[in-house]
Structures are given as structure tokens and as C-alpha cells.
């Protein structure tokens, strides 16, 4: 626990019930608390910290050096097999990785490119020969590598990339080729400068047949000179909105010869004579199986963006608890956090951050179960992928929104780089569109919800929609577990309208949130019925007409996921005072979700006008109750000053306030205090 | 007019009705179209453009040089009196100033500091002697100057600043002094490096009486060496989240002697013997009169942030009209802008941008009338201030939201600095809190609405609330014109519920939007009644309890202002086709405002559940209708490629798409096209 202010705060000591901050910190750190604490201790080291004001070139070199430092001291290989020097510790490895953000998001993402994408692709898409030959260099960063999947012309639609790898049995090589400008690989970390190899995704063609996207290991630069190898070319992506410690760039290939053994062949192999074989018969399913290993990126971006939101809230809440502006009813100026609007801006976002923390812990456990092989069925993987899609999109947006709100809540001081929020926000910006564009991910979630829903109705043939879904996004036919059942144990129905008075009641909130998802999905499914038997073009048009509604379904589902995780998390809190405060916080989260969608509940008669009015006033009451606990709630994130590194949150604001008050006190005592004009001469 | 794509677009030529783009451009440029066109022509000059990737130090020097270039070639002095080399052209000057943003927001704000704040304070707060002695250097930038009002400890609450200027009749000097760290001047452009003088705001004390905040002209640096003058000190604010071409910094003063004549004495003068006099008897009113000259900052930030939103929309809409991703029902991949969700993201923001453009033109005319003296009563000024507060807050937030949405709509390409959106967003960030924190400004608006409302009720004594308002924000007693009457001619009542079916009907929209403001204000006023006679502390607490509701009133009022301006603007459009399309766009604006607040209308019985459902579906239908006109609507902003300077909006995306399509066409024609695996062997 870290109390960033060293003064006793009346607001905290007066508050009943109280939060047991160290115990809550333990709850929030979750199963991998030791791993997180260990890496946080390392991350106090200023050699790993972002140096504000560096040029792009300097920042890139700093981050490369930091990456190598991390390779030496950071215990970064835990996700790799024990046999290869790792620890088969998937959850712990991701937990550690997420924490790196507090040093510099560029370092986190550079590490993600190297170990989470480049080395991980060799591990998951390659086989023994690749592991032996190629992994050591990737793991040690002797070979910095790029993950060359996205092309200028195709980002979200990976299946349509233009790069080809055509097998030539005469030489037992693939001819790797970029046929046009839109097929250049783009936005790749390590591509502009540091990468000496890349895992390149290309359409595998052999014997005149295109077997779809496969991955190839391709050296791209001479390790000595740093020059591109023959046939390889590229370009620097240049300055970006953030993450400028990473050398993103473009690559293209002109008939580069790739030896047959450098096809990463776990899911698709080519024999010397050109015969193709795969353990996964369906090309569509094979594609999604290969891409499925990318889920760790989404899981970890969820955790990392959550950590950015936490840092922003630590800064803004701490400052809001020390900064005063305008006189209220009393002589003293008012603390920012005592303003109702300031509470409205910060505390619901704090509530969602807590919800996402509990949801993240759940997801990380699921991830660990899947990747350790303990629970690794197709269904397990697909559940994980859907949940990761829902949470990654929701929380990366939440982090941006929270950081911006925190920035504004700190006024002009929030705009200074020294207070960190603007830098974090700039870096986090791209999290909303990389590793899966948020809008595209929400559509995947919606389609899964729809597929779950559709088969429950005998008269609703999933035909056209399922085909459509399958071809563009995910194999819907495989989705057998209704997702709602995965995330919660459905409560007994009851009369929603009657119980809506008890808004603080857990079951009422659950019913309202669950009902919304189910009803929205049912409504969209109904609307899409004509698409089932319609020609492809008409079906696509109908689906497009309801695209916004589909995305709203997915958002509603993500809200429910967060709420259920928060609610389940409450049960793990032993201290009664802490649990009471967290229950208020959970209520704020649940009720602000309901408040945001109040029109929906009113239109469908789930809430009466009278009940609906009480939502906002009840939220306001909860915010007042939570206000004295705000500092404890951010202190429980457990960040040390070396992690926060924001000068407005280091207690100096409070010292400035004290100094000013002392000045005026002395002035009054001296009798030299000038009289205000309006009092003069009376 | 500038068509950023040189290809004929089916979507445009097929669309009926059609927009007369050049004519619409003229409408949007407004009364000062010539001024805007002239400065836009100048701003094509790359010497004035932002050079991406510069260090902070380089950027600052570039912007200073650009500022001097602007002083020579930019006709920047039009707002100054003709007698002093200006043109007494207030509206035109601001219109020109707003346009500078397209070159680099840092240049715009640096110009704003120099001419809009520093020189303008000398003009408006000083008298003839100051104009003669001090204005020429400020106008020519021979004397770069800082506007030293904000302190580290007091930003929004200017009245409470700590710096003092104590008159000493013995030497006829003021003793300017910073008594503690929180009273350092902070965030001042030109303070870190370039400023050789400053207009410093301090509490004027003479004869033991504090006459409140006044402005003083104070040299701060030696013009030759650049060193601080004796008694002056400071600090660099360092790197910021944006606007790094401006050298923001801190200043402090240790018993600096300021000659009596350097008090800017238009609203408060001190005689040689120390006798204070002012043409404005009330200290509160005097304070707000002095600060009132700041309104031009808010007016111009409204226009500038609007221009940033326009640039973002030009880029995102142009790209969305050329970029394709995922196959739909047909062979071709789908244009991003054909996706319903993409339309949902961009077009309502385009609609609000249009609304704000019309509102800006209105406000600029009001500004011109006030500052030219043509309509310069207290009421005129206060109306202008309230409208500027409402619009500045709403539109600076709108610009940030729009730029972020545009960034995400361009995917990874949107994150590259070369496509400009991230840079604009980073620069615009601080617009939400400088020149009046948006949340504080909305409270000013709400208090004005409340004051207007309160006096209409005989039994509602404005006493306590008015006092409260007067002491903290603005002299409420002066507000005699109900603001709603200023912004619109109220339509005949009618039955709102009955007419709600005609959602596209102008009067229905007006009634719904107006009714919301009036009802909300009446509800808050009712809730605040007990505050009227309550002790100060209780009154403050009650006001705080309703702070969020007050801010919501102000937002609702701003929505109405925008809608009324858009509606009035429609009447100025002569071309029928253009007017039809703009009416749809106005409807999208009005109905998305209603959609956002649907719960409010439902709870209060203004809309039935059935009617409410139709809002969203009608918006969707309008978006479909507008989609073919999207390019015309952004082309009508009239920006040339030299203004936009985004590589994804220069037609290269379309060329890449064409090249890829040609490749596949040739491949199919050659018979060498590999067969997809799923079709092979059938």
C-alpha cells in the first residue's frame, strides 16, 4: 500500500465503514500477486522509465536498451516451455507483462512485439525444429523480430492479405512476394530499424491451390550492417500519436526465397514435393486456430489499459483531495473532490476500473487454464476469445475516456508532461484499434451472441447469418455454449418492474442487466430472420442495417460481464468494511450502466418513469457515501511514487496550500492584512 | 471548393438532391468569407506549417519565427484601432485568427497570446499613454509578451490570486510581489523563453485597501541578453501534451518596483498620493468588466476548435469513401463509409460541426457588434459572454470527441503523425480547460439561466442564490434578458406529445429542445428554493447537491443554441437541393440530441415509448440518405490539400485500391490465379 499523501485526512479517518487498504490491495492483485509485486519492484528502477522529451530516435534506442535490460533482469520468459528455459507460467507471465506499462507503454508494447507476437508465433505456430533453431534468438532479443501480419490494405480482414508465398518444389523454397503497394506489411514494431527477422504472414500457394494465410520465418536485415537483405525493402512509419519508443515500419518482399523448413508448420505443412497437409481440415477453422494464439495480446492489452486508467485515477483523485478552488460556505476553499460534479466525473470511472479489474482476473485465469492445457477445448478457447474481444474493446475505450477525464480534472497541470496523464493517453490511443479494432471486435461478440441465441429457436435457421458470420469472422457453428451462461449463474426471474425499487439489490441489478442483453439479442435476431434465406447480397444489407444494434448488444454484454465479475469479486473480500464500500462502488457501476441506458428500460416497460428518476438520485447518494473512501480506493491499487511519478500527486500541492494558508494567517495576525474595498469605509 | 479525390464518385453523381458545393462553401464561410479566403491562401505557405517531429526547442523557435512572419504578412492587426495601424475590424480579425489553426495550432495560440491577450490587454485595460508607449512593440512582436493572470494555485478562481501590487506614494511605484509558491504565475505562453514583458494581474493595494485584481505592464527580461530582470524569476513548464511550439512557463516577482503609470488604468486608477478611483463603482462588477475583454479568447477558441473538427472530418470522410475492408454481398470489398456503424460514428459529428459553424457565425456577429460599439450595452456583453461560455465548452469537447472518432475511423493509419489527426487532437486537448475550464463555464451558463428564471417568479427571492452567484461568478443582478429569448423566437406551444410523431418537423424539434431547457431550469430552481433564505454554508451545500443538474441545464441550453443557429442558417441557403440535404443534417443533429436525452423525455411524458423508439430508426434512415452527400459536405469546408496535408486523404488510398484490383483482374485473366483450397478438388 502506498499513501501518496503523508497527512492524515479527515475525510478518511471520519469515514465509517473503513477500507482495509493492504487487504484490498491483495485482493486486486489477484492470483498472481507475487508476480505483480516482483515486477513492480523492478519497475521502480529509473533505468526502465520513460524519459520525457526525448526525440523519436532517442526514445527508440532507449526502449531497445530497456528491452534488453528486461530480457536480462525481468524474468520475461515465463510463458515459454520449461524445456526451453521458460516456466510454462502463462497467467503469471501476462500479469507481469501488463505491469510493464507503468515504466513506459512503449517498453510494454516493444516487449509485446518481441515476446508476445514474434517469439510467441514461433512457439505456437512452429514446431520442434523452429523452437530449437529460432526461439533462443527471439527469446534473448539477439534477434529482434517483427510480426508481419497487417498490410497497408488489410488490417482487420487478415484473411484477405495480398502477400503470397508460392512453393517451388524444384528448390524446396517458397517465393515470398508483395504483389502491389497495398500488400506492404505495415505498422510493424521492430520493422523500421531494429528487426533482423520477421514472422511474415502470406497466402500459401502450392500446386496452384491457395491454402490461405500461413506464417513464415524470414530474416530481413543483415545483423552486422543493419541493411535490408536482398529482396526485402521497407519504410519507416515515422512519428506517431504515441508509443514513439517503438520503431514501427513497413516491409515488402520482392521474390524472396524462403526455405521450406521456415514455414511455421504446426497447422499446415508442405512436403518436399509440394503436397499440402494440415491437422485442421477446414480452411476457415484452421485460419481461426492460427489467429487464436493472438488472444493473449487482447487479454494483456485489457490488463495494461486498465493499469493506465488506474494511474490516471491515482493522480486525479490524489490531486482532487489536495487541490482547492473557490470558496464554498466556509472560510476555506473547497477541495475539488468535494464538488458533486468532480465526484460524478471521477468516481463512476473508478467504479468501472474496479469492475474491469475483477473481470480481468477472471479472464486471466481462463487464459491460464486454456494455455496451460488444463481447460483447452474448442469451446474454452472460443469463450476466451469472445470474452477477450468484449473486454479489450470496452476497457481500452474506458481507459482513454478515464485518462482524458483525469487530465481535465487536473486542469492545466494535467496537460504538463511531468504529470504523466497526457503521455499515457497518447500512448493508449492506438490500443482502441490495434490487436483487433474495437468496433470489429464488438461485432464478433455480437455474432457469437446471435449464434448462441439462434439455435435455441427451432424455427430460426442460423443458415445465412451463420454462413455470413463463418466466412468473415469466426466459425459460428462451433459456438455451442450460450455465452451468458458462461459468465453468470442466471438468477430466478421475478418481476423486474416490482423489484426495480430495490435498485441497490444485487438481483435487481442482475435482472436488469441480463434482461437487456437477452432482449436486445432476441430483437436483433428477430429482425435478422429474413436474412436467413435471403440471397447473400440482401442478407449483407440487412445485417448492415442492424450493425449498430448488434454492436449495442455486444456493449450490453460487456457491461454484464464486468458487473458479474465485480459482484463475484465482492464475495472474495473478507473485511466487512471493505466489502460494504466495494458494494457501493459496484452499485455505482451497475446503476450508471442502467442510467446510461435508461431510455431502453423505459421504452420496454422494465422501469417506470418514477423508478427511473430514482436511479440518478441514488447514484448521487452513493457518490456522496463513496467520496471519503476515494483516496483509499486508489491507494489500494498499490502503486509507489516511483510508479506514479506525477508531480501534482506527490504531496506538493498540499504543501503549497498549507504555505498559502500560513501566509494569510500570519498576515491577519500581523494586522497588515489589507481590507477588501467593499468592506472599507463602512 | 476542393475535391480531394479526383475521381468521379458514383455516390455523388447518383445522389438526388445534389449539393451546390461552391455555394455551400460560401454560406459556411459567412460574413467574413473574404478574410477567411485571404488568410487561407496565405496559410498554404509551407513556411507557416507545423514540421512534425521537431523537438520542443526547435518547435518553439520555428513558431516564434512564424509569428514574426505572420506579423509581417498576415494582416494580424485588424482588431486594433485604425489610429494605431489597425482596422477596427473585430469580427474579421477573429475570423482570420481562427483559420491559423490549419497551419499549426501552436502558431494560432502563440498569436493568441501575443495579440489576443498581451497586446489586447494593453488596448482594452490600458489608456492612451499605454497605447502610445506600449502597444507598438506588442503589435509588432518587438516585445513578445506574456499574459500573467493564472497562478499555480488559482486558475478558474482569478479573483483569489495571491500576487499583490502595493502602492508606495513615496516613490510613486507599485511593489509587485509573489508571497508564496502557489502565487507563481503559471502556464503562460511566452514566459519560459521569449517574453520580454508581461501584463501581470495582481491584487491592487493602496492605503491599506485591497481594490481587487488589476493589470500591470511589467518588463521581465533584458531584451539583449534574454536574462530575467532583477526581482523576476521563473521556470519552464517543459513538455506538454500538445502545443509544444509555445514556451509556457512560470513567473514570480520579488518586490519588483512598477512605476505608477504602468498600471493599466482604464477601470481603476491610482493617483500620485495613492487615492484609488474607478469608473465602475462595484468591485465585483469592475472585476467582471475587466475580465469581460477575455471573451474574444472564448469566441475564437470556439471557431478554432471547430476548424480542427472540420479537418478531422475531411480526413476521415475522404478516407472512408476510398478505403475498403471486408467483402459484403458483392465481389468488391465494402467502402468503410457504407457500413452503418461508420456512418453512425461520423455523420452525427458532422451534423454537430455544421450546427456549431452556424452558431459560430452568429456569435461572431454578436462579438463584432459588441466590440465595434454598435451594440455594446451591459446586456449585450453579458449575453455574448454567456453564449461564448456555452459554445466554447460544448465545441471544444465536441472537437476532441470528433478528432478521436476520426482517428479511430482511420485505424492504424489514423495514428500516424503524417495523417495529422493525432497531432490536432493532442494540441486541442487543453482547449477544454484553458480560457475558462469547460465545467466552470457551464456553471456560469447555468447560473445565468437560473437568474433569468428566478425573477419571473414573484415568490422566489433570488437573494441567497443571486448573492452566491454574484460573489463567485458573475453579477447576476445585471442579467435582465431571459437568455432563451435572445437565442430564439419561441414557437407557439401546441401539444408536444401529439406532434412528436412528426420528428422531422422543425417546430416539434424546437419544442422538445426548448421545453427541456425550461423544465430543467424550473426543476433546479424549485429544488434550490430552500437555499434562498438558508445560511451561506447550507446554501452552498444545496447548490453543490444540484451541481450536476445545473451543468446538465447548461448543456441542454447549448444544444438548443446550436440547433437554433443551424435552423436559422437553413433559411440562408438558396439552392433547394443543398437546403434539403442540410435539413436532413439539421434533423440528424436535433434528433441525436433528443436520442441522447430520450430517458428525460420519457420520464416526463414528453414522448411515449412508441414515439421514442422511432427516434433511433428515423436517425438511421436519415444517415442512409445523407451518406451519398458526405463527401460534398466535407468538401464544402473549402480546405485545399495544402491545408489538410494528410497522406491518407490525398487520393493515394484510392490509387492503392485500384492497383490491387487491377492485379487480381490481370491474375484472373492470366489463368494463373490459385484456386482457394475450399474450391479445390471439387
UniProtKB/TrEMBL annotation, chains A, B:
Entry similarity comment: Belongs to the acyl-CoA oxidase family.
Alphabetical keyword list: FAD, Fatty acid metabolism, Flavoprotein, Lipid metabolism, Oxidoreductase, Peroxisome
E.C. designation(s): 1.3.3.6
Cofactor or coenzyme needed: FAD
Organism from which the protein derives: Cellulomonas bogoriensis 69B4 = DSM 16987
Matching InterPro entries: ACOX_C_alpha1 (IPR055060), Acyl-CoA_Oxase/DH_mid-dom_sf (IPR046373), Acyl-CoA_oxidase (IPR012258), Acyl-CoA_oxidase_C (IPR002655), AcylCo_DH-like_C (IPR036250), AcylCoA_DH/ox_N (IPR013786), AcylCoA_DH/ox_N_sf (IPR037069), AcylCoA_DH/oxidase_NM_dom_sf (IPR009100)
Protein name, per record: acyl-CoA oxidase
Subcellular location: Peroxisome
One record GO biological process: lipid homeostasis
Domain Acyl-CoA dehydrogenase/oxidase N-terminal positions: 36-140
Domain Acyl-CoA oxidase C-alpha1: residue ranges: 292-450
Enzyme class: oxidoreductase
Domain Acyl-CoA oxidase C-terminal: 507-648
Keyword Flavoprotein: yes
GO molecular function, one term: fatty acid binding
Keyword flag Oxidoreductase: yes
Amino acid at each position: 500500500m502506498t499513501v501518496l499523501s503523508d497527512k492524515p485526512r479527515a475525510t478518511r479517518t471520519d469515514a465509517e465503514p473503513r477500507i482495509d487498504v493492504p487487504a484490498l490491495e491483495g485482493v486486486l492483485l489477484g492470483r498472481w500477486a507475487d508476480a505483480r509485486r516482483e515486477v513492480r519492484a523492478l519497475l521502480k528502477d529509473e533505468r526502465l522509465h520513460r524519459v520525457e522529451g526525448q526525440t523519436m530516435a532517442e526514445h527508440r534506442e532507449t526502449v531497445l536498451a530497456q528491452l534488453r535490460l528486461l530480457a536480462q533482469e525481468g524474468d520475461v520468459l515465463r510463458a515459454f516451455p520449461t524445456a526451453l528455459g521458460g516456466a510454462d507460467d502463462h497467467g503469471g507471465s501476462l500479469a507481469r507483462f501488463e505491469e510493464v506499462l507503468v515504466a513506459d507503454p512503449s517498453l510494454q508494447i516493444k516487449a509485446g512485439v518481441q515476446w508476445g507476437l514474434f517469439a510467441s508465433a514461433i512457439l505456437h505456430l512452429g514446431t520442434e525444429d523452429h523452437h530449437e533453431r529460432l526461439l533462443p534468438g527471439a527469446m534473448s532479443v539477439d534477434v529482434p523480430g517483427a510480426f508481419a501480419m497487417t498490410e497497408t490494405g488489410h488490417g482487420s480482414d487478415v484473411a484477405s492479405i495480398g502477400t503470397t508465398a508460392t512453393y517451388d518444389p524444384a528448390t524446396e523454397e517458397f517465393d515470398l512476394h508483395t504483389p502491389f503497394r497495398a500488400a506492404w506489411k505495415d505498422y510493424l514494431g521492430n520493422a523500421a530499424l531494429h528487426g533482423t527477422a520477421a514472422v511474415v504472414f502470406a497466402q500459401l500457394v502450392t500446386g496452384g491451390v491457395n491454402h490461405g494465410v500461413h506464417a513464415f520465418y524470414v530474416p530481413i536485415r543483415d545483423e552486422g550492417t543493419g541493411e535490408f537483405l536482398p529482396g526485402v525493402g521497407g519504410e519507416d512509419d515515422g512519428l506517431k500519436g504515441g508509443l514513439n519508443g517503438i520503431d514501427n515500419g513497413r516491409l515488402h518482399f520482392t521474390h524472396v526465397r524462403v526455405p521450406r523448413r521456415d514455414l511455421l508448420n504446426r497447422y499446415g505443412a508442405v512436403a518436399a514435393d509440394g503436397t499440402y497437409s494440415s491437422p485442421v481440415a477446414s480452411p476457415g477453422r484452421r485460419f481461426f486456430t492460427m489467429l487464436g494464439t493472438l488472444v493473449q495480446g487482447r487479454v494483456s492489452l485489457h490488463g495494461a489499459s486498465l493499469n493506465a486508467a488506474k494511474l490516471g485515477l491515482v493522480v486525479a483523485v490524489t490531486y482532487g483531495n489536495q487541490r482547492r478552488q473557490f470558496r464554498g460556505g466556509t472560510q476555506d476553499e473547497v477541495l475539488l473532490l468535494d464538488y458533486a460534479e468532480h465526484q460524478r466525473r471521477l468516481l463512476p470511472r473508478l467504479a468501472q476500473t474496479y469492475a474491469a479489474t475483477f473481470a480481468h482476473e477472471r479472464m486471466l485465469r481462463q487464459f491460464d487454464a486454456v494455455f496451460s492445457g488444463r481447460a483447452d477445448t474448442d469451446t474454452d478457447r472460443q469463450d476466451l476469445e469472445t470474452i477477450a474481444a468484449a473486454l479489450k474493446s470496452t476497457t481500452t475505450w474506458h481507459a482513454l475516456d478515464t485518462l482524458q477525464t483525469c487530465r481535465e480534472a487536473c486542469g492545466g497541470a494535467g496537460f504538463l508532461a511531468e504529470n504523466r496523464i497526457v503521455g499515457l493517453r497518447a500512448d493508449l490511443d492506438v490500443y482502441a484499434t490495434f490487436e483487433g479494432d474495437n468496433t470489429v471486435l464488438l461485432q464478433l461478440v455480437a455474432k457469437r451472441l446471435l449464434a448462441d441465441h439462434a439455435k435455441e429457436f427451432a424455427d430460426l435457421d442460423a443458415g445465412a447469418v451463420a454462413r455470413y458470420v463463418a466466412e468473415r469472422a469466426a466459425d459460428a457453428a462451433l459456438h455451442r455454449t450460450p455465452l451468458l451462461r458462461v459468465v453468470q449463474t442466471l438468477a430466478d426471474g421475478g418481476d423486474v418492474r416490482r423489484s426495480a425499487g430495490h435498485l441497490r439489490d444485487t438481483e435487481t441489478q442482475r435482472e436488469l442487466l441480463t434482461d437487456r442483453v437477452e432482449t436486445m439479442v432476441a430483437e436483433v435476431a428477430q429482425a435478422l430472420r429474413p436474412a436467413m434465406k435471403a440471397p447473400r447480397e440482401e442478407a449483407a444489407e440487412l445485417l448492415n442495417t442492424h450493425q449498430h444494434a448488434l454492436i449495442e448488444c455486444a456493449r450490453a454484454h460487456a457491461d454484464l460481464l464486468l458487473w458479474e465479475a465485480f459482484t463475484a469479486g465482492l464475495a472474495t473480500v473478507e473485511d466487512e468494511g471493505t466489502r460494504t464500500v466495494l458494494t457501493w462502488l459496484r452499485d455505482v457501476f451497475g446503476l450508471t450502466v442502467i442510467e446510461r441506458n435508461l431510455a431502453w428500460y423505459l421504452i420496454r416497460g422494465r422501469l417506470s418513469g418514477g423508478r427511473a428518476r430514482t436511479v440518478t438520485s441514488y447514484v448521487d447518494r452513493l457518490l456522496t457515501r463513496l467520496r471519503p473512501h476515494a483516496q483509499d480506493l486508489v491507494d489500494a491499487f498499490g502503486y509507489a511514487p516511483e510508479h506514479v511519478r506525477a508531480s501534482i500527486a506527490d504531496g506538493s500541492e498540499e504543501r503549497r496550500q498549507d504555505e498559502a494558508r500560513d501566509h494569510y494567517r500570519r498576515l491577519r495576525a500581523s494586522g497588515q492584512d489589507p481590507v477588501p474595498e467593499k468592506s472599507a469605509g463602512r
